[in-house]
Specification:
Blueprint: H1 32-49, H2 61-73, H3 92-102, H4 110-120, H5 122-127, H6 130-140, E1 147-150, E2 166-169, E3 175-186, E4 193-200, E5 204-211, E6 217-222, E7 233-244, E8 248-249, H7 255-291, E9 293-294, E10 297-298, H8 303-335, H9 344-353, H10 356-381, H11 391-399, H12 409-425, H13 430-442, H14 457-480, H15 489-519, H16 525-553, H17 556-569, H18 577-591
Parallel strand pairs: 1-4, 2-4
Antiparallel strand pairs: 2-3, 3-7, 4-5, 5-8, 6-7, 9-10
Helix pairs in contact: 1-3, 3-7, 3-8, 7-8, 7-10, 7-11, 8-9, 8-10, 8-15, 8-16, 8-18, 10-11, 10-12, 10-15, 12-15, 13-14, 14-15, 14-16, 15-16, 16-17, 16-18
Length: 596
């Protein structure tokens, strides 16, 4: 395992600052402990879930609870909990790794485990009192009790601030009286406790730990879902539920902070889970392509089939680079948390909230990478992919919800851009402020043909061009739209896409640079080719988003001038991606697995 510099990196700093590959954690940096938890999780899925066969793809409360309990017995449920409460210690890498490995097989029954260890337990971990942690976490990490996260309501999905569930303090001051309803609650059919969000006295967004057996708690019927058939999803109602005051989670009026910061981890979790699903899709698709014969040949020998496998593998490599880079960002702050400190909730908020932009990026890129992979995977299977006997059919159905989980991808795209805008308004993004002040003068084409002598020098140049182009366009957008920029959803979405691609390009480039430094260029040829192809195609997408933004801001001669300037400043000589993709695909075909 190579050394990763122990430095605190500010959230969003990748937009303006260059980073050295030694500051980036990659999958090649896993410790022996990481390898152990990965194998423990994979073995658990194979032994306790895949062995169930078709029964493991059906909703069965008793079976689900048995599986969760077994996960607790082998330490999976507590692997990312503080040591004081029976865990191995808070760590982003371990958390992401478990989420990936829980999803490396076609098993919907892993969903209840993921919900339990993620947004179910994390609110109590980060924001609970010592009494609440001792009362609930010790039993949650063994699987003796289970939990669920209850935020969404019939009229407030993405717009969580508009929830109607209400609570008020009883006259004797001993209880909060809770009324309202929730929908689409994962694990609701069997969970013992619920993290419930409500408005105290109709205004102060607050969080409560609610136990299932309390009077007034009602669970609705199971939803008949498109996918994830083995997971429980129900509505809930609360009718004059008496919640003891000691079950208020954190301070009144801080519930939105708890919800949004826990969802940050949830978004990283979605990205990690999608990575596991994507690798699984590559395996099934490559194996089928090697088995299926048409026109006297294995279909894996057809270039258009091979191209699909190459693109799936390439995007999985980029996603893997992003997930573990992001997971590591949390670790310095998490390791400094002292759960005997009365102010640990506020420190948790800062540690987790710092990287909300990066987490949204992982959620969007991960869910859309998976959707791309399962769609192409089903296409490789042809008509057989539409049949339930083939795993790709379930992967295809189960993937679709990932673009909706933890905030829709549309909302997250706008959130990424609006986070940048709000940080600028608050004076918390000085590096970008400085860049914005000079970019309109410095954004000029270099007419010299670049030499690109060093490994990945071309890719680093395109990365720099992406950052400069983003800053250039944002400088105009802030002037053109002024205070209404956040309302220009098409524009903020495009800016969000450029930021996502910027992070993806940089994550892949820095990981590959690290591999080159450790193994040498000859041994790193395969990942170099994947990085080269991905960066070129991603940069072409950046240019398309940029031109659409420009067309929204300018017209006539000014638009023509701006488009010409964008074209001049983004010019590059393309490489033969067809040839590279054939070489990338061959390794996937030979190994019948994700390859790097």
């Amino acid at each position: 395992m190579s050394k990763v510099e122990d430095v605190q990196i500010a959230g969003g700093s990748f937009i303006t600052e260059d980073i050295h590959y030694n500051q980036v954690f990659t999958a090649e940096d896993f410790s022996e402990e990481h390898q152990m938890i990965a194998k423990t999780t994979e073995d658990f899925v194979e032994k306790e879930i895949l062995s169930l066969g078709e029964e493991g793809e059906k909703l069965n409360y008793d079976l689900t609870l048995q599986v969760i309990k077994k996960a607790g017995d082998v330490g999976i449920l507590g692997a990312s909990l503080p040591e004081e409460y029976g865990g191995l210690g808070l760590e982003g890498i371990r958390f992401a790794l478990m989420k990936e490995k829980l999803n490396t097989q076609s098993a919907a029954l892993t969903m209840p485990i993921g919900g339990h260890i993620g947004i179910g337990m994390l609110p109590i971990t980060f924001f609970g009192t010592k009494h609440q942690r001792e009362k609930y976490l010790t039993r949650l990490q063994t699987g003796d009790i289970t939990t669920a996260f209850a935020l969404t309501e019939p009229q407030s999905g993405t717009d969580a601030s508009s929830i109607k569930t209400n609570a008020y303090l009883s006259e004797d001051g001993k209880y909060y009286i809770l009324n309202g309803s929730k929908v689409f609650i994962t694990n609701a059919g069997f969970a013992d406790i619920f993290i419930v969000f409500a408005k105290l006295d109709g205004k102060d967004f607050s969080t409560f730990i609610v136990e299932r057996q309390w009077d007034g708690v009602s669970i609705g019927p199971e939803e008949d879902k498109m996918g994830l058939k083995a997971s429980s999803t129900c509505s809930m109602t609360f009718e004059d539920v008496k919640v003891p005051v000691e079950n208020l989670l954190g301070e009144p009026g801080k519930g939105h902070i708890f919800a949004f910061n826990v969802l940050n981890f949830g978004r990283l979790s979605v990205g990690a889970g999608c990575l596991g699903n994507t690798k699984n899709t590559i395996y099934h698709s490559a194996a089928y392509a090697n088995e299926r014969v048409q026109f006297g040949k294995k279909i894996s020998s057809f270039p258009l089939i091979a191209k699909k496998l190459a693109e799936m593998n390439m995007k999985a490599y980029v996603l893997e680079s992003m997930v573990y880079r992001t997971a590591h960002l949390f670790d310095k702050g998490l390791k400094e948390l002292d759960f005997n400190d009365s102010n640990v909730g506020e420190k948790s908020r800062k540690a987790v909230g710092e990287y909300m932009m990066e987490c949204s990026i992982n959620k969007v890129f991960g869910s859309e990478t998976l959707d791309f992979a399962v769609d192409e995977g089903l296409q490789i299977h042809g008509g057989y992919g539409y049949m339930k006997e083939y795993p790709i059919e379930g992967l295809y159905r189960d993937s679709r919800i990932k673009r909706i989980f933890e905030g829709t991808s549309e909302m997250n795209r706008m959130f990424i851009t609006n986070t940048v805008i709000r940080k600028l308004k608050k004076g918390k993004f000085r590096a970008l402020e400085d860049a914005l002040a000079r970019v309109q003068e410095t954004f000029t084409a270099d007419n010299q043909t670049p030499s690109h002598d060093g490994a990945l020098s071309r890719e680093n140049e395109l990365l720099s061009k992406t950052k400069e182009l983003f800053t250039y366009l944002l400088s105009y957008a802030l002037d053109v739209f002024e205070e209404t920029l956040e309302d220009e959803q098409e524009v903020t979405s495009n800016f969000g896409d450029i930021i996502i691609l910027m992070f993806a390009i940089e994550s892949a480039v820095k990981r590959t640079e690290k591999i080159i430094a450790e193994r040498g260029e000859e041994a790193a040829q395969y990942v170099m080719k994947m990085t080269t192809v991905y960066v070129q195609e991603a940069f072409e997408d950046v240019i398309d988003f940029a031109k659409e933004i420009a067309a929204a801001m300018f017209d006539g001669d000014e638009l023509h001038q701006q488009l010409q300037k964008i074209t001049e400043n983004t010019f590059f000589i393309p490489i033969n991606t067809i040839l590279f993709k054939r070489e990338i695909a061959q390794k996937v075909i030979d190994s019948e697995s994700y390859s790097m």
